[in-house]
Here is the input.
Amino acid sequence: MRVVLLGAPGSGKGTQGQRLAERIGVPHIASGDLLRAQVRAGTELGRLVTDYLDRGRLVPDELVLELVLPVVLAAAGAGGYVLDGFPRSVTQAVRAEELAADSAAPERVIFLAVPDDLLVRRMLERSAAAGRSDDTPAVIADRLRVFESETRPLVDHYRARGLLREVAGDLPPEQVLQAIMAVL
Here is the structure.
């Protein structure tokens, strides 16, 4: 099964992505984790994306595609994936569709709907627990604005293709997973 999780920062994509991948037996691919690994490793790509990540901005499409698409293609060829954090724009989605075979395209897209006040609270708690540089109040506000302008249009893109299912992401994590399983 090939599943894309969409949602604003703090919506639970990472938590649900890990749980769902484990439940259905496919890899969880988180584009943010892949990008942060490049930064930690000090690679050329890591140096290029550091400023974007620190400011909570979207990394340019071609850099993300260069990093994520080979991982997605390999996982699709091995039986599927749960993908979170990619695509982050309609442009990325369309470009990935052009570059990938139909056998790598998502079969279902889950949108985790969470109220903004809960998103902010979750990200501030995550910042306190993990010390992420991209979870400061100013960066959080910017990330939510970027989500609304760049990523939210993906909801309509995938809805028009008949792939989108919306799930309330403000429930306890196990209930969110049950709701996701019900729409798969």
